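queue> pop job 88
queue> type: inverse folding (structure -> sequence)
queue> payload:
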């Protein structure tokens, strides 16, 4: 792990695949694999680090986020619904459907909190107008929590679950909220971190020391911040647009970084051959186990 004043940390590409818009990496500690999505392909991908194999599962609609469950299925935020999906199957069993999702909207970032609740945001797929909503999955319904969002991102929680991090990316910053773990209601919003435009915060995670890690889209770096907001490390990436981060590996000390190649010309791709790649590096700190959606 590189401190803010040190040379960039070494990163390595994983596999030959290139995502259009890689997002939502998460480590399945029971299966020993990394899952992530390519929103635009659309597809769900799975890496087995033991063999290096990357499996790609095509899905029928834009897929914004995935989550682990207590069983072999994943929760998938896709189209207008959050559904259960068994890897390799063509069947999606809806858990909750948004009957009032406006035309042109899609799911984006989503994560499970420490209490097993799935949170997911929506956004206008083209205009990025302030029409998106952050939802919490409860009892077979998606309950609106925050509205007026342009690009929902950076969902993460402190180790004990009492602080929630969230970004409307086009505000170029991350907010922190107090969260009552019992009821999942965010309160006392305050600014936690800022990014210098055109950079903005994208996908995030927390480590075992309570520091927040997040990808800085258009900033070409991953930033680590202490609970008080202080920058504790910066990792320069070989691409301008990293999209999300997750810890994985047997000791959860491998940092995985998804990236995008979306809207790049052939010349731009040639100049940045790792755009769209899954990147990885070893760190000196462990991540936390990925929470699992509690199905009732």
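queue> result:
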């Amino acid at each position: 792990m590189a401190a803010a004043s040190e040379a960039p940390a070494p990163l390595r590409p994983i596999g030959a695949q290139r995502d259009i818009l890689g997002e939502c990496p998460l480590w399945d500690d029971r299966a020993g694999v990394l899952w992530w999505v390519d929103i635009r392909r659309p597809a769900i991908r799975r890496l087995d680090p033991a063999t290096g194999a990357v499996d790609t599962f095509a899905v029928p609609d834009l897929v914004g986020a995935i989550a682990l469950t207590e069983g072999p299925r994943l929760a998938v935020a896709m189209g207008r619904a959050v559904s259960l999906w068994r890897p390799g199957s063509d069947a999606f069993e809806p858990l909750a459907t948004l009957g009032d999702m406006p035309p042109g909207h899609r799911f984006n970032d989503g994560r499970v909190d420490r209490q097993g609740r799935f949170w997911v945001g929506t956004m206008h797929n083209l205009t990025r107008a302030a029409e998106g909503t952050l939802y919490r999955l409860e009892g077979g319904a998606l309950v609106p929590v925050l509205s007026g969002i342009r690009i929902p991102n950076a969902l993460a929680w402190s180790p004990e679950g009492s602080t929630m991090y969230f970004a409307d990316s086009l505000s170029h910053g991350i907010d922190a909220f107090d969260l009552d773990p019992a009821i999942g209601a965010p309160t006392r919003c305050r600014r936690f971190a800022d990014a210098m435009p055109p950079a903005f915060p994208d996908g995030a995670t927390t480590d075992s020391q309570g520091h927040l890690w997040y990808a800085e889209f258009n900033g070409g770096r991953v930033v680590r911040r202490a609970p008080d907001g202080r920058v504790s490390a910066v990792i320069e990436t070989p691409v301008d647009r990293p999209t999300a981060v997750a810890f994985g590996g047997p000791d959860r000390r491998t940092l995985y970084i998804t990236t995008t190649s979306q809207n790049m010309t052939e010349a731009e791709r040639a100049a940045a051959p790792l755009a769209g790649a899954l990147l990885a590096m070893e760190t000196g700190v462990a991540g936390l186990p990925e929470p699992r959606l509690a199905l009732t």
